[in-house]
Design brief:
74% of the residues lie in helices and 4% in strands. The protein has 96 residues and is mainly α. The protein has one domain. It has a two-stranded parallel ribbon. Helix 4 packs antiparallel against helix 5.
Length: 96
C-alpha cells in the first residue's frame, strides 16, 4: 500500500498536535522537501512521480501474487492503483 497518503496525514496531524514532530517530518532529508512541496501546492518532481507510480505498481503486483491472483482482488488492486496513479500524475510537476 502506498505510504504517501499516510505521510501527508501524519504531517497534517503533527502540524496541529506536535510542532516538534512536524518539524522533524518536514525537515527529513529523504522526503521532507517533497512533502513540503506537496503541502504548499507546488506539486511533485518528475522523479518523485515516476518513483511513486513504479513502486506502487510493484507493490500491487507483489500483493496480487501473494493472493494467488484471485480475480476479485486483482480488480480491486487495479482500481486502487489506477485511482492513485491518476491522482499522482495530475499533480503539478515541480522543477525541483
Amino acid at each position: 500500500m502506498p505510504s504517501a497518503p499516510f505521510l501527508v496525514l501524519a504531517a497534517s496531524c503533527y502540524a496541529r498536535g506536535s510542532p516538534r514532530a512536524y518539524r522533524w517530518l518536514t525537515g527529513n532529508r529523504l522526503f521532507g522537501s517533497q512533502l513540503k512541496s506537496y503541502q504548499e501546492g507546488r506539486g511533485l518532481s518528475r522523479w518523485a512521480k515516476t518513483g511513486t507510480v513504479l513502486f506502487m505498481a510493484g507493490g500491487l503486483t507483489f500483493s496480487a501474487a501473494l493472493m494467488h491472483f484471485d480475480p476479485l482482488m486483482i480488480v480491486l488492486l487495479a482500481g486502487v492503483g489506477i485511482a492513485i496513479s491518476a491522482h499522482i500524475l495530475t499533480l503539478k510537476t515541480s522543477r525541483d
